[in-house]
Each structure stands twice: as structure tokens, then as C-alpha cells.
């Protein structure tokens, strides 16, 4: 059976989209292959994103990538994960069902390392609670219409 492909898009491709990629590959990897990209990729994945993934047993080796690297590739779903209205959440010009499931940017949180880590944990948990079921539902068989 062919795995379905999903692309997660955000501006910097350093936190939310990277966590989404890692979580889908780890938890839904039997049916989905996830990728992530951004319009203005950061130099590296945010270390807090990697730490909060490691806390739940996921060793993510992702690197920020520009959206243009994926434009000619077919995807079954393309999901934007930016939520801040003032943020320039990119549009996808390629193939694939377009969906928006936004999350607050944990990298925007300032304060102590504990405060920043807590923001990343909150975003990670929101991705698990909201995004993973939504992606899984994209492959669920159609439900019969009520009687």
C-alpha cells in the first residue's frame, strides 16, 4: 500500500512544521510520510522543538527547507500550521488538498528557558491533540450517513 504524503508549511520551518513532520512520521508513519518547509527557512530547527520531541521519545533529524524544494512534488495533503494573523502564513501553489490547522508560535515566547520550553510543550501537545487526529481522519474510510 502506498503511503500518503503530507507537507506541513510555516514561515520559518523551525518549530511547528518540524514538530508536525516528526510527530506524523512517528505516530502515523504506517500510512503517512510527512515533510515540512517554509517560505523563509531558519538556519536550524529550534533546539526547544527537538528537546520536547525527545521528551516523548522522538529523535527528529529535520533541517529547515525552503518551500520551493517541494513545488513539483505531489502531495495528498498540504497543511499550513501558522496561526498568528500578523504572520505571513504561506500559500501552496502545488498539488494536494489544502488545509489550515493553526498553532501559536512557541518561538515567539520570551522569558526563562523554562517558560520557553513550556510553550514548546504546549504546542507539541496541541499538535498531538488536534493535528494528528485530523491527518488520520484524511485516511479514514467514509462514514455512513445517518438513518
Q: How would you portray this structure in words?
A:
This protein is α/β, with parallel strands linked by helices and 147 residues long. It has a single domain (4-137), classed as Rossmann fold. It has 3 helices and 4 strands, in the order E-H-E-H-E-E-H. It has helices spanning 16-27, 47-54, 113-137; strands at 4-10, 32-38, 77-82, 97-103. Helix 1 (16-27) links the parallel strand 1 and strand 2. Helix 1 crosses helix 3. The longest helix is centred in the C-terminal third of the chain and has 25 residues, at 113-137.
What is the architecture at the second tier of CATH?
Answer: 3-Layer(aba) Sandwich
What integer value in Å does the Rg equal?
Answer: 15 Å
Strand content: 15-25%
Tally of extended strands?
Answer: 4
Element-level helix/strand string: EHEHEEH
Whole-number count of domains: 1
Q: What portion of residues is helical?
A: 25-40%
Mean pLDDT: 88
Assign the CATH class. Answer: Alpha Beta
Low-confidence stretches: none
Full CATH superfamily name? Response regulator
Main sheet: strands, sense, barrel: 4 strands, parallel
Task: Could you tell me the CATH topology label.
Answer: Rossmann fold
How would you describe the shape?
globular
Structural class: alpha/beta
* Count of separate DSSP helical elements: 3
Enumerate the strands of the largest sheet in spatial order, edge to edge or round the barrel.
Answer: 2-1-3-4
Distance between the termini: 33 Å
Amino acid at each position: 500500500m502506498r503511503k500518503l504524503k503530507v507537507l506541513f508549511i510555516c514561515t520559518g520551518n523551525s518549530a511547528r512544521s518540524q514538530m508536525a513532520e516528526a510527530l506524523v512520521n512517528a505516530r502515523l508513519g504506517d500510512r503517512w510520510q510527512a515533510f515540512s518547509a517554509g517560505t523563509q527557512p531558519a538556519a536550524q530547527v529550534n533546539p526547544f522543538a527537538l528537546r520536547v520531541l525527545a521528551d516523548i521519545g522522538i529523535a527528529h533529524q529535520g533541517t529547515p527547507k525552503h518551500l520551493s524544494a517541494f513545488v513539483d512534488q505531489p502531495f495528498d495533503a498540504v497543511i499550513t500550521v501558522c496561526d498568528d494573523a500578523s504572520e505571513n502564513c504561506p500559500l501552496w501553489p502545488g498539488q494536494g488538498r489544502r488545509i489550515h490547522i493553526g498553532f501559536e508560535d512557541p518561538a515567539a515566547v520570551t522569558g526563562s528557558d523554562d517558560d520557553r520550553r513550556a510553550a514548546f510543550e504546549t504546542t507539541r501537545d496541541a499538535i498531538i491533540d488536534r493535528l494528528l487526529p485530523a491527518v488520520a481522519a484524511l485516511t479514514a474510510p467514509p462514514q455512513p450517513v445517518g438513518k
